[in-house]
Amino acid sequence: ISAAGRARAVEIGQQARNAATAALTSVLAPLPHYRGQPSALIASIVVALGRQLQLPDVELDRLRVAALLHDVGKVAVPQEILDKPSALTSAEWRTVVQHPRIGQVILEQAAALKDAVPIILHHHERFAGHGYPYGLRANEIPLGARIVAIADAYDAMVHDRPYKRAMSH
Q: How far apart are CA 94 and CA 105, in angstroms?
């Protein structure tokens, strides 16, 4: 990839990451602070600590996002448990301590976009091996990439292109 292409790809990827973070924090924002609301204070503290430890920028960003979303799993804990002014029962406590795992499930769903990477990477490979970027052939090409390639080819055929008129179905 050219330096300019890589820089643009990183920029767009970061915008997507920021959009995903913003979408999750917007779910948390209307909730009371103890229900998992994004904490700018916690984020600033972890970034400051990370800087003191001379962590790389990529790790500082990961810490910042994790700090903002560390209690995202509390969205699945009933409000009456989180608002309870007295001691929790053992059953209520078992519910509360599930919030990190619930947060994991939420973030795994957001990270599922990463599963699309091999499909995106290889959707221009061709069964006979004359595609790109790696010249993969036959079953070396992920099934999802082959399926997307078929639909992409169909779309190209039935829509006008600057270099070719569309054909009918």
A: 17
pLDDT for 38: 54
**b/e per residue, 94-107, with b = 16+ CB within 10 A?**
ebeeebeebbeebb
| Averaged pLDDT, 3-30 | 87
CA distances for 98 relative to 77, 79, 94, 102, 146, angstroms: 8, 14, 7, 6, 40
Q: Residue 138 has which token pair? A: 């036959």
- 133 prior amide bond cis, ω within 30: yes
pLDDT at 76 over 80: yes
137 has pLDDT over 60: yes
Output helix, strand, coil percentages for the chain, rounded to the nearest 5.
65, 0, 30
Burial of residue 10, with CB atoms counted within 10 A of its CB: 0-12 exposed, 13-18 middle, 19 or more buried: exposed
- Claim: this prediction has a pTM higher than 0.85: no
